[in-house]
Write a structure and sequence with these properties.
This protein is α+β, with helices and mostly antiparallel strands and about 180 residues long. It has four helices and eight strands; from the N terminus they run ββββββαβαβαα. This is HNH domain-containing protein.
Length: about 180
């Protein structure tokens, strides 16, 4: 049996259905406020109760203001939290793939490390994996090689090694670059 629901503002019982004066049947199952506190059709999910409204917090990392809800006692804004999660995922992914470039052995700074997808079946980009589980991330990492930025660029620059392309560069009659 379903439990009774209370209005967040006045604690009055909220029925599951209501018929208005025109005979229209309203589904009230997703309501958080009763009909007295938030009239039908008003699309008002906010309460007048200040304890339920968000306050403004100050991010301890970047200094920006953000909405702080009383149920959470966050110290950082969501942007900074996402940056931190992404960086932690990247550090774990670098460690998982050996911690150094597979071509030259570079391992000084994590920002210079990149993930090269060997196969073409990329499900997602590793760099945008802030909210992806470690299990899913490992499946994607198994399709990758760890390269430093220079080696990764060289890996993708095969068009400059193409004889036809190099011949076109030599015979190009465009603007002089002196």
């Amino acid at each position: 049996m379903a439990q009774k629901r209370e209005c967040r503002k006045c604690r009055q019982y909220i029925p599951y259905r209501h018929t208005d004066q025109n005979g229209k049947l309203w589904d009230l199952r997703s309501r958080v406020f009763c009909i007295n506190c938030s009239p039908l059709g008003a699309n008002n999910r906010r309460s007048d109760d200040p304890s339920l409204r968000p306050t403004t917090g100050l991010c301890s990392f970047c200094g920006r203001k953000f909405k702080q809800y009383q149920t959470r006692n966050r110290k950082r804004c969501s942007s900074c939290n996402t940056k931190i999660r992404r960086y932690r995922q990247k550090l774990a992914a670098i460690k998982y793939l050996g911690g150094k470039c597979e071509k030259c052995g570079y391992n000084t700074h994590p920002a210079a490390m990149e993930f090269h997808h060997v196969t073409g079946d990329k499900e997602f980009t590793i760099g945008s994996a802030a909210n992806i589980s470690w299990t899913r991330l490992k499946i994607e990492l198994n399709k990758c090689k760890l390269f430093c930025s220079n080696c990764h660029r060289a890996e993708h620059s095969d068009r400059y090694d193409n004889e036809r392309f190099l011949q076109e560069v030599q015979t190009y009659k465009g603007r002089l670059l002196d």
